[in-house]
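hiii so um. not sure if this is the right channel but i have a protein structure encoded as tokens and i wanna go backwards to a sequence. like what aa goes where. can anyone help
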């Protein structure tokens, strides 16, 4: 029995149509709305604050932590959107379905500041539990209320361990890398 499945050109054409629909939606629905300006704000302002607060002596280590965290968050966000766990009705830019202002703005900066100010593991764990709870039970519901974030097949509580574990994993990687570099 031969399966009838779409060929590459059909998928590519459908993808092009989807891109055009997203662009039209973004221009007519997102661009210059309150949510769009808010996303712009939460993308830019945290980085300005970060630059004023970052320990310039440890900037490479902190940026390594932040960069690895952003890569992991973008991968997880893409997975969640593609598998219809969540979606984002408002976008700062229409090119990517992920929420870049949150992923690479406020979330990354908050994690880097926690990493900077709570360098000992016990303090880091406690600070990350608190931050994970705030992002899970305050910021996520707020973004849902604002229409920026839509839960599809996801519940807030699922985010709590992810917020916590991703930062612990990245701290472990960076600290191991930094320790090996200092020893070697």
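sure thing!! here u go:
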């Amino acid at each position: 029995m031969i399966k009838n499945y779409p060929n590459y050109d059909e998928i590519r054409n459908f993808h092009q149509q989807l891109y055009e629909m997203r662009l039209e939606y973004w221009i007519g629905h997102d661009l210059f709305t309150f949510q769009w300006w808010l996303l712009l704000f939460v993308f830019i302002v945290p980085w300005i604050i970060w630059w004023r607060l970052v320990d310039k002596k440890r900037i490479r280590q902190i940026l390594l932590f932040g960069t690895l965290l952003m890569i992991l968050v973008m991968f997880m966000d893409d997975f969640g959107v593609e598998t219809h766990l969540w979606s984002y009705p408002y976008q700062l830019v229409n090119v990517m379905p992920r929420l870049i202002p949150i992923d690479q703005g406020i979330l990354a900066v908050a994690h880097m500041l926690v990493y900077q100010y709570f360098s000992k593991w016990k303090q880091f764990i406690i600070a990350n539990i608190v931050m994970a709870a705030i992002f899970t039970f305050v910021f996520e519901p707020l973004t849902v209320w604002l229409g920026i974030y839509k839960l599809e097949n996801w519940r807030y509580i699922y985010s709590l361990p992810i917020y916590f574990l991703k930062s612990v994993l990245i701290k472990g990687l960076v600290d191991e890398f930094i320790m090996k570099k200092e020893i070697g």
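oh and The mean pLDDT is 93.
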